[in-house]
Amino acid sequence: MRSHGLQSWIERLNEAELPALAVVVQDLQRLAHSEKSSVKQLADVLLRDASLTSKVLRVGNSAYYNPSQENIRTISRAIVLIGFDKVRLISLAVSLVDTLLTQAPREQLQALLARSFHAAVQARNVAGYVLSRRQEEVFIAALLFHLGELTFWGCGGEQADELALALDQPGIEADAAVRAVLGTSFRQLTQGLVKNWNLGEIASLAHGGSNQSDPAGYAVTLGTRISEAALEGWDSPAMEQLVEQLADLVGISREEAMQQVLASADEAVKVVGTFGASKLCQLIPSTDPEHIRRQQQQREVRLLQPDLPRMQRALQELGQMAASKGDVGLILDTLLEGLHRGAGLERVMLAVLADGQRCFRAKRVSGEGTSDWISDFELPVELSAQSHIFSYVLRHKEAVWMGVPASYGLSELVTEPIRQWFGQGMFFIAPLLAGKREIGVLYADSRVSGRALSHEQFVAFQRFTQLTGRCLEALSKRG
Q1: Where is the HDOD domain (predicted)?
Q2: Is the pLDDT of residue 297 over 70?
Q3: Are 287 and 436 in contact (CB under 8 A)?
Q4: The CATH homologous superfamily of the domain defined by 308-478
Q5: Are 198 and 33 spatial neighbours (Cβ–Cβ below 8 Å)?
Q6: Taking all residues of the chain, what is their mean pLDDT, rounded to a whole number?
Q7: How far apart are CA 352 and CA 362, in angstroms?
């Protein structure tokens, strides 16, 4: 069955796919806003579904919600010990997880559900600073912020497959692809379901809190944005801006605000595990310091772009050193700085001839993941017909761009040891010569991000190699 347009999707989701979830959400929200709501009324809602009751009790007995570990055997006891609002929250979250993750869930659904739980915990903890109550309501509003998209990925069938394929296409505009497949937007679908399920309070919290005059709505918005920015990295510009907003809102330092955000991410992992969705834990960005450090390095690589002024400055400095007495260390540092930061090549290595010209050994390296090269890289010099690419370029005294059609005939020279060191893909390689004297080989790639190399980068690579050779030749003549 193919659906198109907002009303068509609401009818499909309500009538065929999500009636049980809709009823539970409606009943729980009705109880939240009734002054006459009682323990018995909430218990009655849950006891209609034996499976839901058992899962709520399991979550209620978890160390996260019941640190005293007092045994809870009934819903009524859970409400007394844990609190009315917390049991309502647990019930709604269990219903959502149970409905959407019962079958083989799509990776898009799992990623979005993990992000929704992360947003919910971040939002509730922000609300804890600025509100004396309503924290659980904020949690639910953030959890259901992407309700339309969650239900689509959970129940969209073949049209979900169709959209997943469309979104995988390079350069695709996501909102346009969603509209083409669904005939509506995810935001409109969320608003339609919220209206259909009579969740007016959630709608106002989830999509109306862009300023601090509404603390509850603002907490939902801030928590949701933090969960999204975390996917870009804890040190991303978007995260820095949100941490600053949190610090201003709460009246704490940026460092304290960042620690609060990281603590909430750790808490979100515990919450997800508590709700029986442990497969989602790994989809919440890790706060491990080593992981963050690697993330920072990867971000630096992703942001590494050719810097023309820096490249020109390095070329000018090498030109000056070729015309006057220069220092070897300074020459090589300028070479690698120009290629890495100037030309935007992510990994660069100068491998010099060593041990009486019997092997290549790393002399200078630059870029993420190259520290092992400087300590361990060694490659025998091969003079036979079955040579490798390092010996080949040195013997033929030519720069080569491997991975393009012009060099396909040399692909067998990329031997297994070379692939083990550098991986698969494009790279530049050239001999470094001081006049006629063989110094070594220069290697460069952009394997970390996987970006293709460009003609402009190859031209710069050749120019840097030639100028460095002239510097070393001039230095040897003066020596």
Answers
A1: 18-213
A2: no
A3: no
A4: GAF domain (3.30.450.40)
A5: no
A6: 86
A7: 6
